[in-house]
Design a protein that fits this description.
This protein has 314 residues and is α+β, with helices and mostly antiparallel strands. The strands form 5 sheets. The chain has an 8-stranded antiparallel beta sheet with strand order 1-2-6-7-10-15-16-17. Strands 3-5-4 form a 3-stranded antiparallel beta sheet, covered by helices on one side. The protein has 8 helices and 18 strands. Pfam families: ApbE.
Length: 314
């Protein structure tokens, strides 16, 4: 079979999924399977679906052995590993806090509400060992009265997984893009653009670059934000404090060998001040790279992006 161009898109996880590349195999017959994979993934990991595997787990009692779906086990284990590695700046155990701030449904379902009421909520600090893992049976034991939210890692994890699936099917020089969580691979240079952080200018890129391999993710405190009691809040919670982070960074783009890690790193960068972000990255994730945007328009680029970017084009 001759090498042919391939492009596919679908809606999932409240965003547009795009898959493209070249290959010597007919992937079109797999399109429905890919859509079904994302649908099943949401049925496992979405806290917005009351009967998802994650929602069922969140409703379970503490100090009880709970056998969970294998994919959910893998993602929660990965999320917990990142929580420990980042000293709980990244904290997937803040589902109740997000609900208290009004984030109870998908962002597209409530983003146009004029004002959201905050519910009474007292954050008592993070638990150093919030969950016990029982790998032989894909089991867990919750060690606190919390709810898990995988919004900080699930999309990146799914991009990595789908990329591995289509690569095994024969897709070369490929890209998987889930609303800005991106994984690219192959010999072909791809032009990637980073959107302007302001929603009014989101049709413009602040920078474009060429890259062949790696994961990219962008976090922004301006777009996914809403009014609570007359105050603007956003979805990136400081894992140590349980409240929306306060920083002069309005957007961070992270580069890593996988998109799940880039997803996590981008969010943590938004918790740091502009001058602190790149030094923090260099210390804790020296292999990763970043582009951070300050609220006054300043842009900083870490030297380490050279590991992933072949050239910056604007």
């Amino acid at each position: 079979m001759l090498m042919q161009e391939y492009y596919f898109q679908c809606k999932a996880m409240d965003t547009l999924i795009e898959i493209a590349g070249t290959g010597k195999i007919d992937l079109f017959e797999w399109e429905k399977e890919i859509e079904n994979w994302f649908e099943q993934f949401e049925n496992i990991c979405s806290r917005f679906r009351p009967n998802s595997e994650l929602s069922l787990l969140n409703n379970q009692s503490i100090d009880t052995i709970i056998q969970i779906e294998p994919t959910l086990y893998q993602i929660i284990k990965k999320a917990n590993d990142f929580a420990v590695q980042t000293d709980f700046y990244f904290n997937p155990f803040l589902g109740k806090a997000l609900k208290a701030y009004g984030y109870k449904e998908t962002f597209n379902e409530f983003k146009d509400k004029n004002d959201v009421e905050i519910e009474p909520y007292q954050y008592e600090g993070y638990i150093k060992e919030p969950i016990e893992f029982l790998p032989v049976m894909n089991g867990v034991i919750k060690k606190g009265d919390y709810e898990i939210d995988l919004g900080g890692i699930a999309k990146g994890w799914s991009v990595d997984k789908v990329a591995s699936i289509v690569k095994e099917l024969g897709l070369e020089n490929g890209i998987v893009n889930a609303g800005g969580d991106i994984f690219v691979w192959g010999e072909e240079e791809r032009t990637i653009g980073v959107q302007h952080p302001s929603s009014e200018l989101s049709d413009k890129d602040i920078i474009q670059f060429k890259m062949r391999n790696g994961g990219i993710a962008t976090s922004n405190t301006l777009y996914r934000s809403w009014n609570v009691g007359g105050k603007r809040v956003h979805h990136i919670l400081n894992g140590k404090e349980g409240i929306p982070s306060e920083s002069d960074i309005v957007q961070a783009t992270a580069f890593s060998s996988n998109t799940a890690e880039a997803d996590v790193v981008a969010k943590i960068l938004c918790m740091h001040n502009f001058k602190e972000a790149i030094p923090w990255l260099t210390k804790h994730f020296p292999h990763a790279g970043c582009i951070v945007v300050k609220n006054d328009g300043q842009v900083a680029i870490s030297q380490s992006v050279k590991k992933y970017v072949t050239r910056i084009v604007m």
